[in-house]
Amino acid sequence: MAGRNPSSPVTPAPPAGEPKTVLDTPEQTLQALQTLQCLVYRWDLTANTVHWSANSGEALGPALLEQLGRGTTFRAFLGCTDESTDYHRFARALPLASMPYEALVRPAIDGTPAAFRVHDQGRWRAGSDGQPEQAVGTLEILPLLAPVIPGGTADPLTGALTRRHLTEALGTLPFGPQARWALLLVGLDDLGRINDRFGFETADRLLVALAGRLRQQLSSADLLLRFSGNKFAILLTETSVEALGAFGERLISEIREARLSAGEGQLPVSVTIGAILPPHQGEAPDAIIARLQEAHEMAKRRGRGRFFLDLQGTRNEGRRRANLQMADEIVQAIDRNDVTVAYQPVVRATTRTLVFCEALARIAHDRYSRQYSGHRLVAAADSLGLMGHLDRSMLKQVAADMRRDPTLHVSINVSASSIMDEAWIALYRREVDTDIGRRLIVELTESVAVDHLSAARNFIAQVRPSGARIAIDDFGAGATSFRNLRKLGVDLVKIDGGYIINMAKSPDDQAFVRALLTLSRQLGIETVAEWVQNEIVAAQLLEWGCDYFQGSLSGLARPLATEHGT
After folding, report:
1. Which of 120, 205, 377, 446 could form a disulfide with 478 if both were Cys (CB 3.0 to 4.6 A apart)?
2. Quick one: which of 495, 344, 340, 351 has its CA closest to 411?
3. What CATH number does residue 373 fall under?
4. Residues annotated as region Disordered (predicted)?
């Protein structure tokens, strides 16, 4: 930009005649682009040339525009100096494939950081030979007031920015009464069922289509980020309480009424959205993200396809401090070996002889309050993200007990976080040999199998060589199918105790349990009825073909000294 410091703010420069590299643009569109400081470009990757829309001379100045007519200079301008920083991800692809890209970057002019940022968004296309051929995109010039995302690597599936960029952006945003930004967490409902019924490829296509729909609702100053498997985060840089509520409800309505592309056809879907406003005081990015996740959980509790705006803000800080104290107590209890194993017997239905024991976590009550007793310890650890730590502690203790007692047969629970935890797998390989493995049953809850089917299959493939059997716990509580049980190679199903405990009074529960037992028997899968408390229910289960009982009728969980496996 001749005549001014290249790091100074962008101001319109008088046009220096229409350059040869200008695209023809309809008049109304051009006026809108000029107003928005949004430039359109077509990048010929083969010829290393970039062609710009007519308003580009005003926005960039003729000198810089001439430089940016070369692809190599344009890349350097955007900070794409090597493969690690080039968010376009140009690479060999399928013939005529089209790939999205998006980044919010602070450009450099002759090596000097500019006093503005640019939002670069577009798609590149491969030629008939699969080599990158052309990219078409928009480049919006923005002030530095909103966050700058250096590098800007995009999610390879959807083209959205990644969660890392959200953390970086939150570190630059203003706080207090004058802050007008907001965060939304948009979750695609029932992704587990979509995976189950239509396959992972269809689910991926729906996520790509959803990302496209969400982009259509945003201004170029806003950010769309892939937060996790089925969730996208949206950062609105300028909004209000009223506008945010209307935006969230409109987004839910438009997604519900639309049909998202799933490849060969279209499917109706819904989204659930949680949203938060800026805190009144400075807050760490991790704390802001935690509040955002809490808001999304509140929306889910209200039902699918709901919007929830958390207006409490930092008033939840007391609860978060209590959670932090609880987490610290649980971690200390694990590290001090105050979390121990109790074994609950599982008996054969016909003879009431002991077959194996389920390993359950218990905590020493003399040091810790009874809020952690029994299942509450697992619930607290799960809600605080500590299940991986607890699972590894339980695995080590159970393996040690089984080495000391060669007659002990045990089932051990594994959480969703652990089936994808390399540390748990590595510990399992160290602790469990074939002697222990042939006496071990690994339990996955039905919700884990439904929501993480691919990960569950991979996990089972890694524990099978030890000789361990696989059980699905709480069966009937979720929405998995017997078809998936066969895919997973399940040996046992443990019927959710919520159905067993009400059987005597509920004809519906009786019919459901009987159907589960019949189908399991036809597939050659053994069954365990949980929460069996009396002889009347036990007799009915035995008549219907249940293999094993677990519950107060056959014994409560106790330390190993009072239980022996056979």
Report:
1. 446
2. 344
3. 3.20.20.450
4. 1-21
Q: Are residues 177 and 235 in the same domain?
A: yes
Residues 65 and 106 placed together within one structural domain of the fold = yes
The beta-strand segments (E) located in 182-270 are: 182-188, 223-228, 231-236, 260-261, 266-267
Q: Of 77, 80, 33, which is closest to residue 59 (Cα–Cα)?
A: 33
Domain that holds residue 332: 327-562
Q: How far is CA 248 from CA 43, 160, 186, 242, 565, in A?
A: 36, 19, 9, 10, 56
Residues 19 and 102 in one domain: yes
Q: C-alpha angle with apex 466: 461 to 467, nearest 5 degrees?
A: 90
Whether the Cβ atoms of residue 65 and residue 73 lie closer than 8 Å to each other: no
- Residue 65 identity: L
Helix orientation angle between 163-170 and 285-302, rounded to the nearest 10 degrees: 120
Q: Computed from CA positions of residues 170, 141, 213, 254, in that sequence, does the dihedral angle turn out positive or negative?
A: positive
In a domain, 462, yes or no: yes
* Helix or strand (DSSP H, E) at 209: helix 200-216
Structure tokens at 73: 């200079």
DSSP 8-state code for residue 159: -
Q: What is the DSSP string of 35-47?
A: HHTEEEEEEETTT
Q: Domain check: are 289 and 343 in the same one?
A: no
